[in-house]
Structure formats: structure tokens, C-alpha cells
Write a structure and sequence with these properties.
The structure holds two protein chains of two kinds. By secondary structure, chain A is mainly α. Chain A has 13 helices and two strands; from the N terminus they run H-H-H-E-E-H-H-H-H-H-H-H-H-H-H. In chain A, strands 1-2 form a two-stranded antiparallel sheet. In chain A, helix 4 (about 105-135) packs across helix 10 and helix 6 (about 155-175) packs across helix 7 (about 185-210). The model of chain A has no long low-confidence stretch (mean pLDDT about 85). Chain B is an alpha/beta fold. Chain B is built from ten helices and nine strands. Chain B has helices at about 1-25, 40-55, 70-75, 90-100, 130-135, 165-175, 190-195, 225-230, 255-260, 265-270, and strands spanning about 30-35, 60-65, 80-85, 105-120, 155-160, 185, 200-205, 215, 235-245. In chain B, strands 1, 2, 3, 4, 5, 6, 7, 8 and 9 form a nine-stranded mixed β-sheet that branches. The relative contact order of chain B is 0.18. Classes of the chains: A mainly alpha, B alpha/beta. The interface of A and B includes residues 92, 168 and 169 of A.
Chain lengths: ~325, ~280
């Protein structure tokens, strides 16, 4: 890199180099260095925050695997704890004699609620996105898209109240089921929360495909439906998958709404397809039980293990989304 | 241009400094009291706080309602002055505070009954303690087994950190574990709403939270009301407590708050909130 950029005085109008060396302008050099260092600290602090969160949760989760009987080999004990956590549905952490920490029903609860939410949200969200990008006139799109994004701004506790006080009696009345707080209720409310994310990101992906591809398809004689289904959507598939995964992350991480809507019963629904039974997702369990567990007890540590499970899962999904969105941006750039 | 930016920065820094100094100076009234604990005792503590603050404007009382266990923990850690609890301290909580060099004093300020509630359309007219235990343990799953219609029983319980849950568990479940299908809710009002909107539901709330939208059942033939609870005849009755570290210093804010229930005004507040006063005022 050239340290000294000289210009001939007459040609450029000045008679000194553009870039001064440290020797010539020590104060400026030091200030520049300090400024760059401060900006680096600021940028690093956000990465540091994420790393510290991980470190803290792992630090509080590990003692769950190490606490317990002596006389058993450490590896065997860790394995026993893991087995109990993921293979047993008996969750009685506050029992005074023999607390049990079987989290299978809790993990299953999260999965049930997330899958139900996606089954409702993905078709609705994708169809809305396709409508907004390809079918509806631009003026209407400009009105509808901000309104859909407004749904994302509603606080989740408001959704929770709506689910518990409005949706629950409706479900009781129109579906002949014993309780209104169940997988259907939680799934519906999570779908409403996930739809704005899915619509927003897939609509961006579909728009980024560009006019050229669409015009080429019409020029080949394709109908509008064929263009959308067989040209545009496959071209935007990276962005669409990223949208679905982001919606999934929203659904899996949602706490207040599922706490009020899912019924919080520690069970796996009895015929597995009976979605009208109450379940207990991971997030609701942590929220409900963390407030009062004594710090340092096994119950406290196992709640952190549940949090770690959530964290690993959402972090993995996040990495996949970033990779897909990166590919979408690069593809979009190529097409314009 | 550089000079102007510098002036701007100095101006912002000066405003910040003045603001912080003002915040530090405006500390707040001389006496501050922090009360934390049970959601059941919460309404009483709120009303006490309001009455006391009206009498003495220099007093500032903050009442938090995050649960009996949380109140005990806060008192042990020194984060609150008074812990309101709907159950007595557990052994380990008591030990923890003794280890920290303080002794606990319990003030029983009112009696509360845990009422078993069902939906108003439920024809069942009463249950025994054994039947309730059977329902929550999962042995009885249909209302027709206890004299109602042929409909599945939807049980609701409180989360394990709640004082109401502890009382119910101690006096009715007697150590038996609850069935997996029993839903959990986070507070007395939420329990009331859940039972009010679900026809086949059964739940339990403190007497103060009994509303018109639910029906309270007699337990072992005894209906929960002020008389049966105060005398202890009703099976699921419990005293509500205030805990302090040591006996509060006479004349301090803590002392005023902890003995307010003995005054006529305090007893009127307790009754107005739907609980049963301990003295015959």
C-alpha cells in the first residue's frame, strides 16, 4: 500500500502529499488509531454479548449433569441424566423425596405447537406473499404489506390474552372438545405471530427474482399460474425456505402466548394426533418455573438445560437461515 | 466546523451531568419499604400500603407479587423488608435465613380458604377430599363417576411455586403426585378465568378470588365461607403470613405495616378483600 501519495504540484493544485506519515502528523495518526480501536470495541461488544450468553447458560446447565450420586462413574452418570431427560415423561422436579426430570413431554410439546403453527402459517404466508408480489396491483401491495408487518409489532402477551379469553371459548363452542387451551389454540396463535415474518421475507425473495425471469417465462408462452409456480417460486426457493425457518424460530421461541394458550399439562397427547389436548412447551415451562426455584438447586440447573436445548436449536436454525439468505442475495444480484 | 462539534459535545455532556445530579438528589421519601411475595396476600398488602401511605406521605411502600417462594427468597437475600406468604416458610428457607444471621418472625394476618371451583353449569353438588384427590391424581377421569354428567374432567392446578398449590397439595393431595393431564396456570385470576370458560373444568382458588362466574363446591359437606374458614372447620383453610427479619423495631415502617392488621382499619381491609379476619373486631 502506498504510504505517500504524491501529486505534482501544478497538476493537482497542492504541493504536499495527500497522506501524511506518522512522523509528519503524530497527533492525527494517534487519533485515527484510537478511533478505530473504539469502533472495534463497540462492534466486538455485541459479539461478546452473544458469546457471554452462551457461556452463562452452559455454565449453569452443566451442573445438572454433574450433580448426583457418588460411586457411579462420571461418564455413566452424565449418560443416565441425559437418558432420563430425553426419554422419560415424568416431570416432578419439586418432589421432596425423589425428584424426576423427564423432559420428553416438554420437548414434544414444543414440537407439537411449532409444527401446528407452521402447518397453518406456511400456506397462508406463502400465498399472501405470492399475491403481494405477483397478483395484486402495486398500489394495493404498498398498503397491505405494512399492515401485515404491523401484526408483528403486537406484544405477545396481548396475543396470549386473546388466546386465553377469546379463542379458547370459541374452540370450546365450535369443536366438541373438553378444553379450549390446547395445541390447536397455541398453534393458531403462533401461526398469527409467524405469518408476518414469513410474508415479509418471502415477498422480498419473490420480488428479488426480478422482471427478466418473469418476462422470459411469459415470452415462452407460460400462463400466470405456470410462471408463478414453476418459474418464480423455484427461483426464490432460498429466500422462501429462509422465511419458513424464521417463522419457525418465532414459533419455537414464543413464551407468553403459549404459556396462556397451551394449557401447560405435562403430557404427550394421548392418541398422538389428538391436537385438542393441552401440552407444555419448553418456553412456557421455563417461564413458569424459573421464578421461584432456589438458585443452585437441581431444578434450577435443569431449567437451564432446557434453555440450552432451545438455544442450540434456534442457533442452528439461525445459521441455516443466514446461509440461505446469503445465497438469495447473491442470486438476486446476479439476476438484475 | 470542528469547534462547533466540540461545543455540541460539551453541551450534551453538561446536560447529562445535570440530569444525573438531579436524579441522585431527588432520592425519594425518607422511609422506603419493600414488600414482596404471594399473589394471594397481594391485594391485602396493596390495600395496607395505600392506607399507610395516605396516613404518612413520607412513607413509600412498594408491593411486588411474584409468589410466596419468591418472597421468601427475597427476604433471605435481603432484597425485601417484608415477605408476604400464603404458606409457612419451608425448612430450607428458614435455615437459609438463620445462616445469614437473622431470625424470622411470622405474623399471621388473616385466614384464607382454598375453594374448589367448577363451571356454573356443573350439576355436582359436593365432593369429598378423597374424590378431589382421585380427580387430580388421575384415577377419576369422568364427571359421572362423582355424580355429574358424562363428560371428561379437565383439571387445572397452580404451578409448583404457588402458595395456593402448596396448601392444596398438603391438605388434599397429601403428597400424591398430580396426574400428567392436569393443566397448570400461573395465578388465581387465571385459574378463575380458565374454570369459568371450560364447562368440564375443576380448579382451586383462594377465597378472595371467588367470583360469580364459577361455582364453589362444599368439601366433605362444608361450604367455604368466612365462618367455616375462620374456625378451621373447612378442610382446606390456611393462615396468611407476613414474615420479617426479627421482630421489627418499634415505630419503624416495618413495624407499622406488620401490625396494621391488628387495627380496625386493617381488619376492615382484610374483610373487604374477601379474607377472614383473625380477630373479632
Amino acid at each position: 500500500m502506498a504510504n505517500r501519495i504524491h501529486t505534482e504540484g501544478a497538476a493537482a493544485g497542492f504541493d504536499r502529499p495527500l497522506l501524511l506519515t506518522p512522523g509528519e502528523d503524530l497527533a492525527g495518526y494517534v487519533v485515527g488509531l484510537a478511533g478505530r480501536f473504539v469502533l472495534f470495541l463497540v462492534a466486538a461488544s455485541s459479539i461478546l454479548a452473544v458469546l457471554l450468553i452462551f457461556a452463562f447458560i452452559i455454565r449453569e446447565a452443566v451442573p445438572f449433569f454433574l450433580q448426583g450420586e457418588a460411586g457411579v462413574s462420571a461418564f455413566r452418570h452424565v449418560f443416565d441424566r441425559l437418558a432420563e431427560l430425553f426419554a422419560s415423561t415424568q416431570w416432578y422436579p419439586e418432589a421432596s423425596e425423589a425428584p424426576e426430570f423427564g423432559a420428553l413431554a416438554i420437548v414434544a410439546g414444543s414440537l407439537y405447537v411449532t409444527v401446528t403453527a407452521l402447518v397453518v402459517a406456511v400456506p397462508l404466508g406463502l400465498l399472501t406473499a405470492v399475491c403481494l408480489s405477483d397478483i395484486v396491483p402495486f398500489g394495493i401491495r404498498q398498503i397491505i404489506k405494512p399492515v401485515v408487518e404491523l401484526l408483528a409489532a403486537i406484544p405477545s402477551v396481548a396475543y396470549g390474552f386473546f388466546a386465553a379469553l377469546v379463542l379458547s371459548p370459541l374452540i370450546l363452542r365450535y369443536l366438541d372438545v373438553p378444553t379450549g387451551k390446547n395445541v390447536i389454540n397455541a398453534g393458531l396463535i403462533l401461526a398469527v405471530m409467524a405469518i408476518p415474518t414469513i410474508v415479509s421475507v418471502s415477498e422480498d425473495a419473490l420480488t428479488a427474482v426480478g422482471r427478466d425471469l418473469r418476462e422470459a417465462s411469459y415470452a415462452c408462452g407460460a400462463t400466470r399460474a405456470e410462471t408463478i409456480l414453476r418459474v418464480v417460486m423455484p427461483a426464490a426457493h432460498n429466500g422462501i425456505i429462509a422465511a419458513i425457518i424464521l417463522g419457525m424460530m418465532r414459533a419455537i421461541g414464543e413464551t407468553m402466548a403459549v404459556w396462556m394458550a397451551a394449557g401447560m399439562a405435562n403430557q404427550i397427547p394421548s392418541p398422538w394426533w389428538d391436537l385438542a389436548q393441552s401440552v407444555r412447551p419448553l418456553t412456557g415451562t421455563i417461564a413458569q418455573e424459573m421464578g421461584e426455584t432456589p438458585v443452585g438447586s437441581t431444578h434450577y440447573h435443569v431449567l437451564f438445560v432446557l434453555g440450552l436445548v432451545l438455544l442450540i436449536f434456534t442457533f442452528g436454525l439461525n445459521l441455516v437461515t443466514e446461509a440461505l439468505l446469503g445465497r438469495m442475495r447473491r442470486q438476486g444480484g446476479k439476476n438484475t | 466546523m470542528r469547534v462547533r462539534t466540540l461545543e455540541r459535545l460539551v453541551g450534551v455532556a453538561a446536560i447529562l451531568a445535570v440530569g444525573m445530579a438531579a436524579a441522585v438528589a431527588a432520592q425519594g421519601p425518607a422511609k422506603a419499604l419493600l414488600v414482596n411475595g404471594s399473589t394471594t396476600v397481594g391485594p391485602i398488602a396493596d390495600a395496607f400500603a395505600e392506607a399507610l401511605m395516605k396516613k404518612d406521605p413520607t412513607l413509600s411502600i412498594t408491593v411486588k407479587k411474584t409468589g410466596s417462594g419468591d418472597g421468601a427468597k427475597a427476604l433471605v437475600d435481603g432484597l425485601c423488608d417484608i415477605a408476604t406468604m400464603s404458606r409457612f416458610m419451608k425448612d430450607k428457607e428458614y435455615k437459609a435465613i438463620v445462616e445469614k444471621g437473622a431470625l424470622l418472625v411470622a405474623h399471621a394476618i388473616a385466614m384464607d380458604g382454598v375453594c374448589v371451583i367448577v363451571h356454573p353449569t356443573n350439576p355436582v353438588s359436593g365432593l369429598t377430599g378423597d374424590q378431589i384427590r382421585g380427580i387430580y391424581a388421575g384415577r377419576i377421569t369422568n364427571w359421572k363417576e362423582v355424580g355429574g354428567v358424562d363428560a371428561p374432567i379437565v383439571g387445572f392446578s397452580r404451578d409448583t411455586s404457588s402458595g395456593t398449590y402448596e396448601t392444596f397439595e398438603g391438605l388434599i393431595m397429601k403428597g400424591e403426585k398430580m396426574a400428567a393431564g392436569v393443566g397448570t396456570v400461573g395465578s388465581n385470576p387465571e385459574m378463575h378465568d380458565s374454570v369459568a370458560t371450560t364447562p368440564g373444568a375443576i380448579g382451586y382458588v383462594g377465597l378472595g378470588f371467588l367470583g360469580e362466574k364459577v361455582k364453589a363446591l362444599p368439601v366433605n359437606g362444608i361450604m367455604p365461607n368466612k365462618g367455616t374458614i375462620a374456625s378451621g372447620v373447612y378442610p382446606i383453610a390456611r393462615p396468611l403470613f407476613l414474615f420479617t427479619r426479627g421482630y421489627p423495631e418499634l415505630g419503624s415502617a416495618i413495624h407499622t405495616f406488620s401490625t396494621f392488621y391488628l387495627t380496625e382499619e386493617g381488619q376492615e381491609i382484610v374483610e373487604a378483600k374477601g379474607f377472614v379476619p383473625l380477630t373479632n373486631y
